[in-house]
Design brief:
Tscrpt_reg_HTH_GntR, transcription, GntR family transcriptional regulator, transcription regulation, Arc Repressor Mutant, subunit A
Length: 84
């Protein structure tokens, strides 16, 4: 899945969807470190603020936890939103 600049969905939501999909597929498991902002900028061709917004959205949804001075990590499964 790639960022589609012609899709009306905001870019940060697209980046969050890419990471969310990696978590749901098991490519990123609980307590795995998320890619850094710099890696997201490089891999998805987005601005640093866009990467931050994507992580913030995932954190609000319960997929991710951020630890000061350590980074962002996949939350334990119990924190994940229920999938309907």
């Amino acid at each position: 899945m790639c960022v589609d600049r012609f899709d009306p969905t905001p870019i940060y939501q697209q980046v969050a969807a890419i990471i969310r999909q990696r978590i749901m597929k098991g490519q990123l498991g609980p307590r795995d470190r998320l890619p850094s902002e710099s890696e997201m900028v490089r891999d998805h061709g987005v601005a640093r603020d866009t990467a931050r917004q994507a992580v913030a959205l995932l954190r609000e949804e319960g997929w991710v936890m951020t630890l000061p001075q350590r980074g962002s990590f996949v939350a334990d499964r119990e924190s994940w939103p229920t999938q309907g």
